[in-house]
Amino acid sequence: MNVVSLVGRPNTGKSALFNRIARKRVAIVFDQPGVTRDRVTREIDMSGRKVMLVDTGGIAFDREVTNDPLDDETKRQAALAVEDSAVCVIVVDTRDGITPLDSEVIKRVRESGVPCVIAANKCDTANDDWRAAEFERFGLPVFATSAEHGRGVEALVKDVVARLPPVEDEAASARPLKVAIVGRPNVGKSSYVNRLLNAPRVIVSNIPGTTRDSVEVPFAIGSGPEARRYMLVDTAGMKPHTKMSKTSVDNFSLFRSEDAIAEADVVLLVMDSLMGPTMQDKRIAGKILDANKACVVLMNKWDLAQEEGMTESKALPALRMMMPFLSFAPVVFCSNKSGYNIRRTVDAIDRAAASASERIPTGMLNNTIAKATKKTLSPMVKGKRLKIYYALQVSANPQTIRLFVNDPKLVTPAYLSYLDKQIRARFGLEGAPLRMFLKARSRNTGAKPDSPGAAGT
User: What is the pTM of this model?
Assistant: First the structure.
C-alpha cells in the first residue's frame, strides 16, 4: 500500500490536516509544539486509492520552544516515515512565513528523493493566499490550504493521488485484524510492538506518557493471499483519573485509548509481572469487558519475575484469583527484553479472534445446555426452578446466546456462570467474551424457537 506522509516543523498544523484528509479525529490536535511524537497512521481511501496516511512529529526542532527530551526520537520517526513514503506533503505555516526550520525540512525531504509538495497551511480565506506564493521559491508545487476550514484540501489530495505509483491488487487486500495494545504507563506496550516487528517503530523511553496518540502499525506474517495481516494499535498508558494532570493532551490520550478498545477486534492487556494486577489494571480490564471485546493478557517482564523466583504454575492461579472476571482470556508470560514467548502472543491473538467469530451449531449448543441442566439443576427461587427450553446463538463478535426460559427472574448469577463454563468447555471460545440473555417463552408457544419472532430482542 502506498504511504503518504505529512512532515514539517512542529505546530504547522500537520495533525489538523491529517484529521481533515482522514475525515476523522485520529491525531491529537493541541496548540502546543511537539504534541505528536510517534508516527500516527490511518488506512484511508484517498480519491479511490487505498493509502496509508501518516502524521509525524517534526523533522527539525527549536529545542528552546519544544523543551522535549524526546525530540531526537521524534525526529528519527519522522525521517523513517519519509523513507517509507511514496509522496511527502510538507506542511508549513504561512502566517510565520519561511523560517530556517522550514528550509531545513524541505532540504532534507528533497535529498531523500521522495516526490513532495508543499501544503501552505492556515490560508483561511482567499485574502491569505498571497502568503503561500512566498514558498514557490523552493520550486515545488504549492497549495494554499486551511486544515481548520478545509480550503484547498481537495486540490491538494487530487495532486497527491496523481503522483502515487500504481499498486497491484490494491483493492484485493483483506481487512487486517485490529489489535489494541493497552495498559498502564510503562508496562512495555511500545516495547512489545518494536520487539514483535524487530524494528524501532514506536518511541520507547522510561518517561511516563511517552506515547500520546494511538499509533497504528501494519504488521503481516507471510506473504501473498495466505498472509495474516494485523493492525497493531499502540496506545497511551491509561492513568487513574486521580493521577491524571488536567491538560487536554492527557485527556485526549485517554479518549484515544478508549476509542482503540472500542474499535479493536482483539485487545491485548499488558501488565507488569513484578507488580502483578493493580487496581488500575482491573479498571482497564473493566473497560475491555464493557466493550465486549476478545482479550489476551500479556504478563510482561517475566524475565525479571523469574529472577525473583516466580514460576508460571504459581503466578497463573494467583492471577486468576485476583481477576476472575477475565478467566476466559488466555495469559502469556513473556519478556520484550529477551523475546521470550513473543511469538506465542500472536498465536493467542489468532485464537481469541477465531473464538470471537465462531459460529456455534444450534443443535450442538442445545445438546450442551441439556446435559448441563441435567448434571446440575438450577437452584430453587421462591419455590420455582429455572427451565431452559431452547438456546440460540444470535450473533458473534461478541458471542451472544439467547436462552428461552420459563421465567428469566429465576436465574441466579452463579448458575449463569455455570452455564458459561459448560459452553466454554464444549466449544472453547478462548479469549472471547460470552453474553447470555434470557427471554420468557412458554413451552407450548405457537412460534418456532428458531424463527425470527422467537429470537428477536
Answer: 0.69
